[in-house]
Amino acid sequence: MTAISDVRIRCGHCRAIFACPVAFRDLESLESAIAEGLQATCPSCGQVVNCTMKNMMWRNADGSDGGVSA
Fold first, then answer.
1. Would you state the pLDDT for residue 44?
2. Does pTM top 0.70 for this prediction?
3. Would you say residue 67 lies in a domain?
4. Residue (of 53, 49, 56, 52) closest to 70 by Cα position
């Protein structure tokens, strides 16, 4: 399992980056939540964001970045 932290989402409407309201311990649980339809509301514009691997980013346990680049 790949441990992760600091999961963030990029809003497709206003492009704001915000903290994911759900904490994940590893990449596998994040991928599972995305497959089940994870959504979050953007605090900047109020739009509901459908979370995908293409609009999320996180920090790996080794300190490297994962997901899309900011």
1. 98
2. yes
3. no
4. 56
